[in-house]
Specification:
heterotetramer; A mainly alpha (about 325); B alpha/beta (about 425); C alpha/beta (about 250); D mainly alpha (about 425); B: about 425 residues; alpha/beta; Rossmann fold; 7-stranded mixed sheet; 12 helices; disordered N terminus; C: about 250 residues; 4-stranded antiparallel sheet; 9 helices; about 35% helix; globular; amino-acid transport (chain B); signal (chain B); Amino acid/amide ABC transporter substrate-binding protein (HAAT family) (chain B); transport (chain B); Leu-bd (chain B)
Amino acid sequence: MELILVNVIDGLVTGLLLFMLSAGLTLIFSMMGVLNFAHASFYMLGAYFAYQISLALGFWVGLLIAPLIVGVMGAGVERYGLRRVHQYGHVPELIFTFGLALLIEELVQFVWGKNQMAYDIPDILNFTAFSIAGNSIPAYKIFMIFISVGIFMGLLYVLTKTRVGMIIQAALSYPRTVEALGHNVPLIFMGVFGVGTALAGVAGVIAGPVLGTFPGMAFVLGSIVFVTIVIGGLGSLWGALVASLLIGWITTFAKSYNIAMSDILNGIGIATPENLSDNMFRDLWTVTSPQIADILPYILMVLILIFRPAGLFGKRES
Amino acid sequence: MKNITKLGAVSALSLIVGATAAFADNIKIAFIDPLSGPFASTGTNGLHQYQFAADHMVNEKGGVLDGQNFEIVPFDNKISPKESLIQLQVAIDQGIRYIAQGNSSGVANALTEAIAKHNKRNPDSRVLFLNYAAVDPALTNDKCNFWHFRFDANADIKMDALTDVMAADDSMKKVYIIGQDYSFGKAVAAAAVANLSSKRPDVEIVGNELHPIGKVKDFTPYARKIVASGADAIITGNWGADMLGLGKSVIENGYEGPIFTYYAAGSGMTAAFGESAKDRIRLISQGGINPIATEEARATYDAFEAKYPEGNIDQSRIFNVIGMLAQAIEGAGTADDVVAVAKQLEGMEYDSMWGGKIFMRPQDHQAIQDMHVGVHTNENIDFDYDNSGYGVFTESTVTMASMDSPTTCKMKRP
Amino acid sequence: MSTAALELTGLKKSFGKAEIIRGIDLSIGKAERHAIIGPNGAGKSTLFNLITARFPPSAGTVKLHGEDLAGLEPYQINRKGLSRSFQITNIFPKMTVFENVRCALLWSQGYKYSFWNLVNRSRALTEGAEAILEQINLLERRDLPAGTLSYAEQRALEIGITIAGGADVIMLDEPTAGMSHSETDYITDLIMKVTEGKTLIMVEHDMGVVFGLADRISVLVYGEIIATGKPEDVRADPKVQEAYLGAALEAEH
Amino acid sequence: MNDQLKTDPSKPAQRMRAGSMTLTLGPWIVAAIALLVMPYIFTSNSALTIMNQMWITVVFALAYNMLLGQGGMLSFGHAVYMGLGGFFCMHLMNYIEDFGLAFPLPLLPLFGGLFGMGFAMIIGSFSTSGAGTRFAMISLGVGELIAACSVIIVAFFGGEEGISGDRTYGLPFFGVEFLKQIEVYYLISFWLMLSAVLMYLFSRTPVGRMANAVRDNPERAQFLGYSARWVRFYSFCASGFFCGIAGGLFAISYEILTEENLNATSSGVILLVTFLGGVGFFFGPIIGAIAFTLLQTVLSLQTELWAIYVGGLFLATVMFFPGGLAGLMMMHVPALRLGKAGGLVMPYIKTLIPGAIGVLGVCALIEMTFHFRHAAKGDHEMTLFWTTFDSHTVMPWLIAGIVAAVGLGVARATAPAMKEAWDEANTAGGAS
């Protein structure tokens, strides 16, 4: 029972972290129609910048400045790269971000080398907040929860209560009309792209110390972010939140409990074949839930796309 | 203007041909390992150790035979079996007869088979495979061949030695085994179960599981399970980011016992573990460097550090590879006839500067050597890793580990 | 008495709460040229889309030659001999003019999804496509990408694509929208020429075109047909007068 | 509607794209002769191996472009179809060996193709109902699933070390045992020619033509009597078939298949290859495959930083030449037709050569920075462009910097003249 509570907290942390990435991505997608493959690369840049800054000025300065730098870089990418490619259509745009992701990974290796960086949790947060049945919950995780919830609230406030938010929401659905009303839509696009990548940067800054800061960190996260926003429904902030938490919990629980395929199959009345080691499907019988935990989101996505193409909360078909 | 065009044409051509231009007198060793991509740090560090070892142990001492130098030719295989096979072909075409590779047993499997086929089909350009790090036991058992030599201990030997040390600790009651879901992870788990149940039948294995390799972002759920199981020891074969992620996560989430593992040092990992993992991680390896075994080794390490301040000698067996190859070539009197060289290597006994003897077992081409279990600490460390102040200090040693272990290898000799 | 080419019975369509088409009964005979007119927002295009199964109707039936079209996909309806054009030009912009027309011929010439025939080996296809290009006067534009044609030419091409498959019921959605007078005359003549002997149903704003082409006219206002009949009868109908005048007055406010 | 077509369409290059290519034998004969002659020019085994790799990639890229270029479907998991075809062939090869069946090796790729097509039929049955994001994300999901299965289902995929076999155990085929690389080369070349011709012919069939129509305007295609879904499905299956053939050729060439044949990286690479070559032209992927294989194998022998250059080249291509290398070449067709291409030669030399030298200068700076940062201490010597120098002195930096600046500067200064010459060369008649 206690373990369930611990898993709920762990899943929440994972989910909220995913949300910080997917929130920016879903905004960018719904506004510009671009599936930004380089989104996780900005997350990586956030971690590396924060590491570099933390060496000189400490963790907190890094938390403030690194996302800003990442956001400015993101805006620059939109202004000087994407906007140019935009005229050729969506596929070249997507491929542009794909190439960008490769290039960023190479550049990070060029600058920082290929090793894992010793980017650590700040001492002030390096203690155990509380324990549940011997499982310690580090204070840093509580801190991560607060940061991400804060960002979600802020985002929700800006989007629903401020004038800028209204314009963005309108531009999401009717870019031409908004432009006709005298708003600078390219500027809005650039701003949204910048903010979206900055959010990814924040995620990188706070995830770097726990999940590791290394050149492969973007690749590890890469496609799962897309999966999240597709499951949630493209363009839906709430969808992104729900899908992130869903994925966080599904993967956490799947890893925490060793459910074997043979148990399930036996449970529904199929007996284990006698000579399992000679059986063609022997590997399927021995599959356990932790083995497939990280591909469950993909299965979920394919199923959702087949049966509900708009995603959980999406209004339009992708 | 014309000159520029000409220059351009010439340079374009030589770009392609350049790779094949050879220095006739050198004995070339192709180093086929990842130099770009996610595993590049290990590969690059290995390359530096090879280059340093060749210069330091052979070239600066006048070379082998009548003054021939060793030359390490790097090939980037991007840790892909396909690329490795292409690079192997390129290397063979450049007249290279010695292939060194170590990262990834998958690549090693592909290479050893390709080399066996190549040597059978092209007797004029046979090559030897110097495997310095791929530890899949199959390579010296079912899949063994005459051309393959393994200088590292295989996963079974390492586990045998590791469990010898573990078994001596009476307080250990519950063990958790976790690893990456692929051949090596499974081999480690199987060996751990077999060894523990014979050496310490009283010890309970409270968990034995596999996780996807290179895909786990957050190890917290695994850490929870391990803590909840009440394990007082963890055995894992994880490496790279999976090792770091697992190690940090279990320590952070309240696990108190030791982690017994294979690859948790160097390549940035020692620095990243730092204080948090002090006295918690125990590594099995050959050739311990703290305390250093010989003065020669100390001088070598000092020279290496002077040349590569950011590098580590974390695979000291590379020096054994170079030393043993040089000795074999001297013994055979030729570097071109790889069969003669291979026959010299078979059964060779070599005194390593890192301490102890190395015996290349002729029946399966598996090097038998001393195995050390070391602890991750910052005390008594002469040679740290990653300039972090932390390193691995040898706590116990198993001499000539698994000398008489059985092998299923049926070596076919030419 | 022969069955009508197209027969609508009690056709309704709602989007959410808004009822756009409120029960339409209409029968169009074979080889009749029928125009649907009405003020903006009356639901003319929606009606077209209902007939061609772009949207499913909320209620009612559509019968083509007496056969119920319920549940059929657009491509299945097309195979039954109903072809349409679109209000917004809808061609294959990256393919040549010739290929646009040839693609439209493929199904009717029985090629289906075959991958064992080569299209440029078929003389019937080439000649058929060229005959249509000749009809729509685009023969010399044959090898240009369709996207590069002028607007009127693109509209002509679209009509060509629409008739190419040999459908006997042709539906044109505002074929002359946005055209100059001379272009309009040109397209009107073209429609006259290519729909000879076929059933034509068109939505049109230009009353000149409508009265020049149509055998019968239906007036659609707020999702209902308020009048159907010969052009002169419809023109005289007081309800029509009122609807158009009312709409005009409303527009002034 | 016109926003997909921003490039000037009055150019005949665009006309070519529009697909009125007639079946001319010329290029095919040239290609066949080139395939036959290549081994006499590049005789070494490694050259043969690299060429084998190239031709396999060509088949794969052409098959991929059946979807991306011809059908407008973007797949993120296409390595799966090639990989599965290859795995199947490998099992077949081992089966033949174990049971001593009389089965000629050259037919093997056909079975890979059938298996690839079979799998494509299963996936295509639900993924092809839409193009766009939905198709792309399903392909991504399926790709990840199969890649994950490859380490879980060891019985079929052999885990991390994959499965391997020996091509020489089958019955000799008219006395050829496929011991030598050259024999394998001709086997692969034969299948390359056959597949390329078949794929080209496929694009000329009714369903191939309709694939283009569905790509441009799925709704209109529906009103021509064709179900967009079925047209996509057929393209998808055909693509799966040729991917499977590529997989079979891979199995023969390397005699091993591993997880890397299925993973996301391979799927991503084929997207890069195809786009680099140009999706708008049938021969685009061929150029892309050749260029990429050379970059990957030859450039990576020269520098560790090859991936940076490839990434940069790729981004530049997407940004400035969305038609890819093939598009770049076909841009010159109008000038050639007008007989004015000669007028372009001098302006090109004046701009592009300094530009290239400038770019090389920049590369030199990158290499030197890398060496400065990451080389061993005391190892100041580096060799670049056949000159050995000390990277810790000012001089080389100065030289490289000046070369880069002057080269790019000259290119920039002469660019307007080149543009002018370009416009002039593409104007019919003209005031020359």
